[in-house]
Amino acid sequence: MSAAKVRFSPTIKSRAPQRATPFPWTYVAIAGLCLVAVIALVLNNNSTDAWQRPATSKLKQANIPFNGDRAYQYLKDICAIGSRVSGTEGMVRQQAMLTSHFEKLGARVVRQEFQPRHPQTGQPVPMANLIIQWHPDRKERVLLCAHYDTRPFPDQDPIDRRGLFVGANDGASGAALLCELGNMMSELKTGVGVDFILFDGEELVYDGNRDPYFLGSEHFAHEYIANPPGHRYRAGVLLDMVGDAQLQLPWEVNSMRTREQKQIVNDIWGIARDLGVREFLTRSGPEVRDDHLALNDIAKIPTIDIIDFEYPTPRGVSYWHTTQDVPEKCSPLSLAKVGWVLKTWLERQK
User: Fold this and answer.
1) Is it the case that residue 53 has pLDDT exceeding 60?
2) Region 44-51 average pLDDT
3) What are phi and psi of 305, to 5 degrees?
4) Which residues, other chains included, contact 226 with Cβ-Cβ below 8 Å and sequence gap of 6+?
5) What pTM was computed for the model?
6) CATH number at residue 188
């Protein structure tokens, strides 16, 4: 997930002008009001502040018909490659591994190749979106997508901003979940064609104020318009940072802009409610710029983002874009919960 994925800071109002010193009884009244406000704040935090007190389902892996342990193993296998920056040997190894995995399951894998300029050298960088097609003959389709490249360096690390970044949650979690969902696609009953799309070049970014984001999704979106395929995507779901052990999935603001997007959100969050997956929170979270923007704005494919941008440690800081974004900070159970919801959503597509 790129550094463009930021939560906008709340507006801080300026203080009112000072007035003359009030009568002492006024101090008593003010103190009483402050006490009431503090008590209300504490009670509110204890009951509704999901960021501080994560909503947790009582579900166990045994209750969920989605193999989170195997999805987690895929996540570890991807991270074992190491850094997977666009155009590097690590990315080439990952592409070969994922292509082999999906082809063995019976999918048709299409490499959508393109060569943008490297932001530092200006030289062409070979990139490829992987389009994994199930039931490719069907004209009415949905897409599930994720980026599978990693940022060059852990630019938010408090100690080593040029260390190794393996992107377990931010990069591998979405791809790993799709790997496991692929195991179920041959027997999954759905009335539409399904494409998994792995986007390259989401964050080939060395300077966040200079370098472009979302290269793969923008290329895909422009190609979809310039060279229309023989099918139509009626809905899309982006998976980004879905493996957090303290999973929290509120509505993403840019996923609620249109009626079509809101319908997808309502359907998926409604399924989560029915299944008892409480981590899908029915309230707005951070506004995030992500690969779904190009799909919505350029390709006109109504697409939502399922993302846990709050990637906390017990101390309240974040593993995002740090050397600590490793498999141990992710959870098989989180992957199972999200995978189960998406599998059910696909089964309800008619």
Assistant:
1) no
2) 38
3) -115, 120
4) none
5) 0.87
6) 3.40.630.10
